[in-house]
Amino acid sequence: CRFYLHPDLSKDLVGTHPPGAHSLVAVSVGYFLEDFVDMLCNQKLHQSWELLFHHSVVIVCFGIAVLLHQYIGFALVALLVEINSIFLHLRQILLMANLVHTTCYRLNSIVNLGTYVVFRIATLAWMTRWLFLNRENVPPATYAVGTVGMAIMTPMNIILLYRLLRSDFFK
């Protein structure tokens, strides 16, 4: 929606951001921080280390964008990934409620897979491509953080996709 209402954003993900975008990314940092602390306090490390690692990467990358007031557009693109989180969380709720063998679970599995491919895999691929194509316009330190972030997030999401496929479709 932001990209439709603010077409300049698609041309400049570094310096351009619409009103409210900086606040959205800042609030997202707060959410990831709160969720990180909650997991540390309420879950065993062996159950949550991957998410803790994921949240650490997001907090660093989004934190840089918020502090520098730059790369907010890039962070907005990254937030598209979170659209899939709705269906990942619903999947967890359905699993906890022991509703695995229901139409609702099956439907959610299909929507989860579709949104996973579109909003996680495709978005991360696009972001990696953008970063590579714009490497001349991004300062070396920021480029390094972005490259490391993408190098961490992409394999993590591919592994999670494999686990989802194995669990929900290839039983």
UniProtKB/TrEMBL annotation:
The gene is Tlcd2. One of its GO terms (biological process) is regulation of membrane lipid distribution. Residues 1-170 form the TLC domain. It comes from Pitta sordida. The chain crosses the membrane at residues 72-90, 110-132, 144-165. It is a multi-pass membrane protein. This is TLCD2 protein. GO terms for cellular component: plasma membrane. Its main location: membrane. Keywords: Membrane, Transmembrane, Transmembrane helix. It holds the Pfam family TRAM_LAG1_CLN8. The keyword Transmembrane helix applies. It is found in: Membrane. InterPro entries: TLC-dom, TLCD.
